[in-house]
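Following the same procedure, backbone shapes were mapped to integers, as reproduced here:
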Amino acid sequence: MFVSYIGAVVRQNVPITIDNWRDKALKDAKDIIWNDIQTTFVLDEERKSYVLRVAGKIHRGFRSHLSNFYLKDREGNTNAEPPKIYQHYISKDEWSAFVSKRSDPAFVNISTANRERASNPKHPYKKSRMGYARLEQQIRKDTQADQPLGRHILWKEARVNKEGVVDNENVKKVVELCETIEQSSETQEGNKDTCRDILGKVFNVPEYSGRVRGKGFGVTPKSFFPQEKRQKPSNEEVLEKLRILSEQVALLVNTNKDKQLPVQLQPEIQMESETGSCNVGLKSIPEGVTTCVLYLSSPTQRKVGKGILHNTSGEVLHNIPIPAGHVKVSPTVAFEPTAPLPIPDNDGDMKFLSDAIGSYVAWPTHLVALEKKIPKDKSVTSPEKVQINKPPLQPKKGSKPQKLEVNRAAKLQRLEGNKAAKLAATKNLDRGKSVAAAAAPNKSQPRLGKYGACLDIQIKRNMGSSNDSPIVQMNKDIFGDEYIEYLEKEQMYDLLEHKELSVTVISLYIR
């Protein structure tokens, strides 16, 4: 009576065109069904889920009943009108939509495949209308067992014939495997938290979402294989974990105490945020351009290089606004060339600090220590390039490359023609440094070593006048073109004083 009543209520409230019982559009209809059933029967609220599953099963069975007995007449023609017995449940529009879905070729193929599989099951069930629940009650009554039976036992008993013998070869194989695993004591039936009991190990396939193999209708994986709920830690446990973490941090700080920043630089990067964040506010950094020291904090806090900090309003980095908590820095010296950049530039192929020399990168403000502000009259940006008329050596076709000029008079004549432009280029291409100090050695210049002293004497002896500039041939394979360059006395002193070197000096050093 209970199931029949549920079926009547479902047919009244749920259209036959609904294909998915889990459709959210059925929420109101399910509430009506549950309230109607509660009015007639005494049921607890916790039984609502089971009753609605029964309702869904009945709805699916009713649709199958209509397809098998009323969709077509005896001649095989589709009925255009709904069955008279159900006309007060089914309208003509619903019936037309139902017939259209059931006549679709895709549905027909799926239905045919399912029908063939159901008619020839691999492990046939032999208890007719008796379900697993009633079968378990009967076995426990006959054996006077107090504990629930294992899934593999019920599954086997549901597939024996009237003589109690397994007569299907596929079923025999499953039963033998279950007995082998049970004798080896590899799995206990009480171990339900992993869904890997004896029967689960034999089939080695996941359970369906709405049922459990060997337990029958109404038993779901969620109810049969309960998962242990994770308990939230208490306040005492949280405080204990915080205490342990604080001790570990203190131990790490003491271990790396010698690797901390120098004392004279620490005040310049102290935290100034009232909220206690680790970023240095831009207010603590002078506006404009300032030389700075660059640090990294992982794995330990250490100095990795030097650079030039650009702290001006509206600064962008490669046409992109600078990220919050970062400043625009141009690295000039890399103490640790392989130090990774905080924000690598994949487009510019810059991943390490050595790759960013002479370019611009974003650096965290709390890892920048200030040194001194650069005067406004000195340039720190890339100087304007000056085009120098260099006489290229272009060999004629079919002939060997011409040799360099060896005539001293020709050298002097060429030098006089380009001397003014060369001096201007030397002053502008010194990458932001003051050329006045590098034009000649000061009295307070660094003490030179043995090699430097000899080279200093050689410069004063052979390059005393402006017309004694050596000529260097620039190699085409290295510089992309073959031409003559003149080595100035100021450039030689840049080499002695370990200043930034020009291409000419580097080429001479290589040769």
About this structure: Residues 48-69 form the longest helix (22 residues). The chain has 17 helices and eleven strands. Residues 261-373 form one domain.
